[in-house]
Amino acid sequence: MQRGNDFSQGSIPRTIVRLSLPMIGAQIVNALYNIVDRIYIGQMPVVGRDALTGLGLTFPILMIISAFAALAGMGGAPLCSIYRGQGDDKQAEDIMGNSLSLLLIFGVALTMLGLVFKGPALYLFGASDITFPYADNYLTIYLSGSIFVMIGLGMNYFISAQGFAKESMFTVLIGAALNIALDPVFIFALDMGVQGAALATVLSQMVSAVWCMGFLLSKRSLLKLRWKSLRLRWGFIKRICALGFSSFTMQVTESAVQIVSNASLQAYGGDIYVGVMTVVNSIKQVLMMPLQGFAQGAQPVIGFNYGAKKYGRVIEGCKSLMLMCIAYSVFSWALALLFPGALIRVFNSDPSLLSVGIPAMRIYFLSQCLMGLQMAAQNSFVALNKPKEAMFFALLRKGILLIPLMLIMPKLFGLGAMGIFVAEPIADAVSAISCFTTFMLTAWRSLKKSSTVSLQP
Hints:
Helices cover 82% and strands 0% of the residues. By secondary structure, it is mostly helical. It has one domain (3-446). Helix 3 runs parallel beside helix 10, helix 4 (89-124) runs antiparallel to helix 6 and helix 6 packs parallel to helix 8 (193-216).
């Protein structure tokens, strides 16, 4: 098992594919937690469209919960890979234990704050009197079980960081399968509506969290969770948060984008445009999953070899990640532009939703072909323990570019609500090209130089 998880040996591309394919499956399955809820809720008789719109209003809060899970999980897991490459398993275990402690603290705090402020927050996010009850009912139950979401999402990164890609996939597969099975029972058979969807999700995430913790406490795990490793140490906390901050920033700014988007769409177009954005974002979330799977599959390989100072293999890992991400982003771009109607109908076939949604989706995905550049470069920065660069480009795309563009574009050329969809491809193109160019001019050059030096006698 140790040899099978020694990333300093064997073919780099094959190793990344071996780790990535289960991670892609895990990412897609993980998306199903909320996607399946939206599909079932969108098919509810009479109220389906309004309920789907109400569920979309909860996205910013759900993203914030995921952001804190990523802060601890995606901040700690690359450090574990680097320490494993250096042969220091004790430090790796201490990092993992401190990450779990952070997740527990974040989970309790977010649950309390969310339950207190959910009402005014939902109206701020663009809720109307029609859609608020659906959003409120869903969010109340979801928040009550958010600690399971935190543990399941955050600690699963440490399973994949050790090379157990299939086990990592099973963590989310078991929960998603349960969610798919429970949704129709709770939503339709028991007539619980959106509350049933939330309850199914919480129970499913609880099972995923129990499985994940069980694995990390078992003999199969190369790194073990130990009580003494749970004691918070400031030095570790700083490093975890610094490296995880780029992923945290991406999701928090995504949450901010959703807040600005929903509020602006409500003002310029009403509930129908908020509903369209809910569907379009759901489609993008699914289409982005393989890119994230490639990145998470490559990170342990790149980080391990970086820690072991095998710079030639680090370069090969970064190059392989780039090629995979670029090829897939072009494929997903073509799929979204050619078949928008078919993708939207998966969620809801309302004629008014389709008439607005098809042109909006084609605009929204115009720069999807470039997203592979950003995903590859930004995650390579994380794997190489370069938090400042990763954080800046995470902030650039959504915070610096997209939010201001969403406020400006509706006022230009009479675009109105459609201007909010126009803002997305502009921000995507600028940030992707900037991130990739910076990576090639800085980290790539440095790796090339280190590789040359290490080869000299």
